[in-house]
Design a protein that fits this description.
The protein has 87 residues and is mostly helical. Helix content is 56%, strand content 0%. The longest helix has 21 residues, at 2-22.
């Protein structure tokens, strides 16, 4: 966790310096934005017992579920996902 925080802090400092000092182009802004997001990708890879990528919460999976249920013509607030294992 300390390595992740240190890397994120370093990238944040680089981002701030580049904005303040260099007045970057749109290409630089997009590049750094993608780099910041890439640091979040390994956040849940080592989560034991769950093969899918775990971000910091399960809202992403709930939104996907609601989209699938809604597109089938059902009310997502009345149709909960079925648990397939885990906790």
């Amino acid at each position: 966790m300390a390595l992740f925080i240190a890397l994120f802090l370093l990238l944040s400092i680089l981002w701030g310096v580049s904005l303040w000092k260099f007045q970057p182009s749109l290409r630089w802004l997009i590049g750094f934005a993608l780099l910041f997001r890439a640091t979040l990708l390994p956040a849940g890879l080592l989560h034991a017992g769950n093969p899918r990528l775990i971000l910091y919460d399960d809202d992403v999976w709930r939104y996907l579920w609601e989209g699938h249920v809604g597109s089938a013509g059902l009310n997502p607030m009345r149709t909960p996902p079925r648990r397939t294992g885990g906790v």
